């Protein structure tokens, strides 16, 4: 009887599981091909001084320009790329592309921006990350101080003591380190204090419902105070309204990123924005 039931259950679920596995395999194969045929593109989103809208940097965000599906958001392929390890070559492509772009804006006299690049846990676990970053900086000519690497709390904590050596190695290169999605992890003040980082990036979750949600406002204010006490820079992500902007400035967070200042956009569009900005010499916002 039990066996019979088990078999029924098994037969019932098999087709679905098979389908999912096949879908995954299909996606995995298509991602590999996409990397080889250069179907990935970077979009750039402005990071500004919220007081005057002055551009201070940008974040590179990857998209997959798929022939069949159009522009695919990273949430739909980064997790699988991480699982399969494809994120390592993809992440290196992103890093090289973003550094080359930043250097080309500098060389063209357009802007001297800090370019932020997201790293994944898998890249952090690779034994030669510091060497890879060194090589990309040398090859592209971007000054290390113009590169900001965004890491999450969980990525760093998952590395245990090794994380400290790794972050110190990256800092020795002269790059900046930012903790992305800050506030969603579990790092203590004591732990944070030991990390050789430059910036906390307040997660969008705590910005979105300002000013409706008073506990989110308290969390945002606490992160800002924490950054001040640890002598770290702080930037808010997902700033969409002037109320959010004003609140953050009042609390002491001057840097921001979000739709209020600009959506992520293709390199060409970001470049023309930079040249408009330069000729007009007016505030960006
Ligand atoms: P993230 O690093 O936290 O990036 C911020 C995300 O918030 C981006 O989504 C951006 O488009 C979005 N965003 C920015 N401002 C606003 C706003 O005002 N409102 C709203 N609703 N959203 C805003 P995106 O580009 O879809 O990227 C999602 C995530 O995918 C990123 O989150 C990051 O974790 C990951 N990702 C993107 N590019 C890369 C990459 O090159 N490598 C790795 N490892 N991960 C990446
Ligand atoms: Mg990020
Ligand atoms: Mg983020
Ligand atoms: Mg986020």
TrEMBL record:
Superkingdom: Bacteria
Domain EAL: 24-278
UniProt keyword Secreted present: no
Molecular-function GO terms, alphabetical: cyclic-guanylate-specific phosphodiesterase activity
Any single biological process term in GO: cellular response to nitric oxide
Keyword set, alphabetical order: c-di-GMP, Phosphoprotein
Name of this chain's protein: cyclic-guanylate-specific phosphodiesterase
Portion held of the full protein: 788 to 1072 of 1072
């Amino acid at each position: 009887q039990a066996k019979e039931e088990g078999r029924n259950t098994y037969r019932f679920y098999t087709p679905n599981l098979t389908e999912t596995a096949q879908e995954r395999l299909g996606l995995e194969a298509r991602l590999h091909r996409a990397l080889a045929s250069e179907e990935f593109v970077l979009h750039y989103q402005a990071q500004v001084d919220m007081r005057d809208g002055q551009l201070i940097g940008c974040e590179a965000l990857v998209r997959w320009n798929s022939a069949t599906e159009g522009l695919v958001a990273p949430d739909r392929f980064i997790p699988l790329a991480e699982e399969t390890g494809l994120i390592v070559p993809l992440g290196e492509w992103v890093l090289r592309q973003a550094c080359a772009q930043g250097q080309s804006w500098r060389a063209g006299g357009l802007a001297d921006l800090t370019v932020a690049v997201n790293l994944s846990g898998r890249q952090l676990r690779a034994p030669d990350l510091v060497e890879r970053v060194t090589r990309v900086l040398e090859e592209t000519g971007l000054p290390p101080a113009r590169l900001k690497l965004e890491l999450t709390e969980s990525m760093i904590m998952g590395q245990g003591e090794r994380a400290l050596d790794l972050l110190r190695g990256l800092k020795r290169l002269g790059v900046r380190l930012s903790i992305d999605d800050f506030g969603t992890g579990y790092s203590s003040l004591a732990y944070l204090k030991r990390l050789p980082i430059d910036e906390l990036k307040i997660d969008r979750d705590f910005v979105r419902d300002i000013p409706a949600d008073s506990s989110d406002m308290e969390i945002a204010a606490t992160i800002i105070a924490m950054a001040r006490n640890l002598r770290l820079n702080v930037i808010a992500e997902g700033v969409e309204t002037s109320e959010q902007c004003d609140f953050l400035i009042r609390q002491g967070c001057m840097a921001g990123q979000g739709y209020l200042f600009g959506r992520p956009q293709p390199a060409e569009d970001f470049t023309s924005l930079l040249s408009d900005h330069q000729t007009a010499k007016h505030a960006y916002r």
